[in-house]
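Bit of a strange request maybe. I'm writing a small parser for structure token strings and I need a real example to test against, not something I typed by hand. Could someone generate the tokens for this chain?
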Amino acid sequence: MPGLMRTVRRLRLGDFPYASVLVISPHPDDSVLGCGGLVFKLTSHRETRGRVKVTVFSMTPGYHGVDADFFRDYAAVGRENLLRWPGVPEAALEDDTRLIAALRECLGDDFDLYGNPGADDQTKLENVVRTAIRFGESSREVETLGLTHPAALRFLALPRLYFKCLCPAELVRLREELNQAADPTNGNLLLVPHPDDPQPAHQAVTEAALRALDPALNWHIWYYPSPWYRMPPCTIDAIVPLNDEELYRKRAAAETHRSQTIRTPYGKYVMSGASMNADILPELLLGFGGRSTNAFGKYCEVFQMRLPAFYSCQPTQGELLICSDDAPSAGRGIP
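Reply from user aminoacidic:
Good idea to test on real output. This should exercise your parser:
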């Protein structure tokens, strides 16, 4: 049975064509699980560090992911994090009544969405503190991936997206946030979860991000996979090989989300997923029985481009983009 025999084009990182990369993360940890290797590659490589602007958008509050035991142990940390997100005054931490009032001022009507209909203010307060715990984890993630500028993390925490909806005013706000991070004249790469991802919040966030894009800007869109969705090989358009340092940094960034890794070993997922991609995709994409073993290195991330011919105005169907400066070693023949 013949392989897909894709046409291969190598892209040096020095020729990376996007001035700004915007990573859309439905929950606070999805960004690193889907594309943390590419993010660290861009922030650490000498030819892209400082030239390519990377911004991570954390879209939903993520408070459902903080269980009762973890919350009990880290509630004090979460309350301290409220000073940075959403920015309550330090004096408001002294008692819950003052803190609730400060959160209503900072979050506006969104405060009442931090809980199911009919939830009391104490429950909403606890959910906001849970969200602040996840803000702290996201902050450590982006720092681990080499993003040190405070604006590199846009912790939007839009609570309506938990209910799979976004009001027009929020779409306008989201467009403004995306525009601030985007390059107004050069190409922008938007990284979003795959629309076939079965996780409901992932679907809602991808739809919201695509609807919010300003058509006046130059966008290219890549879908990334998740632990809940692996792309069929025939849909993969871009491969990002990862070396040991890049993979281990991605794993370390995933493990900053301790509220999640106590439940699911995402560090293991990062390692095994990247290794499996590199082991099985060469034959699937480059032809069975060929000299293509480990053609993508020891580890790699994968992406699907959204309508590449439409966004680039060039016929690119069937082309496989390999984004790396690493030359294939002996025995890694690529047709």
